DNA sequence: GATATTTTACTGTTATAACAGTACCAAGGT
DNA sequence: ACCTTGGTACTGTTATAACAGTAAAATATC
């Protein structure tokens, strides 16, 4: 939500990286048009495409919700955990 | 990135909400096919479409990067702030 | 095990995202 | 003034996301 925020973040990070729109586009493996559109606030880009741009700028995405903690717990449980070094309660 | 994570989060939250794929689709204002695709891990959905689904499930998106703090600071500065309750140093 | 509900997996159609190409419009530097 | 560079803003084309519809699995509910 609030895609203008993402647009500004992309522009900010690109500027800090000293990249032009075209350079970022090539780095991310997308067309220059998309970079321009994203910075303009266009929210109709493919999620994959947006991710490529964010990744090129070292920007990560994190989901947050009231239930998120529960969700993460569940993920821990269903993986047998290859980490056998300490056998105990994961100290979150 | 790691769209399977998002897929699982959506499924988890939908389940917790007691919604069917179709109900969520209607709630989010998207087609049932998209909900299925997202939960299957399809990363080619439009960002806007994904956001609608996340929003319906009360899942927020946060960007994170080493530069993010700097970015937020800059946002604070350039907004004149309509909040006049405490007379801060706004006089420039 | 029969019935209902939900999910998965196809379709064909329509709208449109992504793209390269082009051109124009700043700013900055010479 | 000129030239360069980066951004903006259009094009036309192609690939495809989104959609409702349908049907078949899977999963509950009785």
Put the structure in a nutshell.
With 92 residues, the first copy, chain A, is mainly alpha-helical. Chain A contains 5 helices and 1 strand, in the order ααααβα.
Q: How much helix is in the residues of chain A? A: 55-70%
Largest interface, per-chain counts? A-B, 35 and 35 residues
Tally of alpha and pi helices of chain A: 5
The 3D shape of chain A can be described as elongated
Radius of gyration of chain A: 18 Å
Coarse structural class of chain A: mainly alpha
Write structural notes for this entry:
Two copies of one chain form a homodimer. With 92 residues, chain A is mostly helical. The first copy, chain A, is 58% helix and 5% strand. The first copy, chain A, is built from five helices and one strand, in the order ααααβα. Chain A has helices at 3-17, 21-28, 32-40, 47-56, 68-78; one strand at 60-64. In chain A, helix 2 (21-28) crosses helix 4. The longest helix of chain A has 15 residues, at 3-17. Residues 81-92 of chain A have low confidence and may be disordered. The A-B interface holds A 1, 3, 5-6, 8-9, 12-13, 16, 43-48, 50-51, 54-55, 57-68, 70-71, 74-75 and B 1, 3, 5-6, 8-9, 12-13, 16, 43-48, 50-51, 54-55, 57-68, 70-71, 74-75. Strand 1 (60-64) of chain A pairs antiparallel with strand 1 of chain B. Chain A binds a DNA duplex (30 and 30 nucleotides) through helix 3.
Task: Give the tags.
homodimer, mainly alpha, DNA-binding
């Amino acid at each position: 939500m609030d895609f203008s925020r993402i647009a500004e973040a992309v522009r900010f990070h690109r500027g800090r990286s000293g990249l032009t729109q075209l350079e970022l586009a090539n780095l991310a493996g997308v067309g220059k048009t998309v970079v321009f559109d994203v910075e303009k606030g266009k929210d109709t880009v493919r999620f994959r495409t947006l991710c490529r741009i964010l990744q090129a700028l070292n920007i990560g995405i994190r989901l947050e919700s009231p239930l998120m903690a529960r969700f993460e717990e569940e993920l821990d449980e269903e993986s047998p955990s290859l980490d056998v070094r300490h056998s105990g309660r994961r100290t979150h």
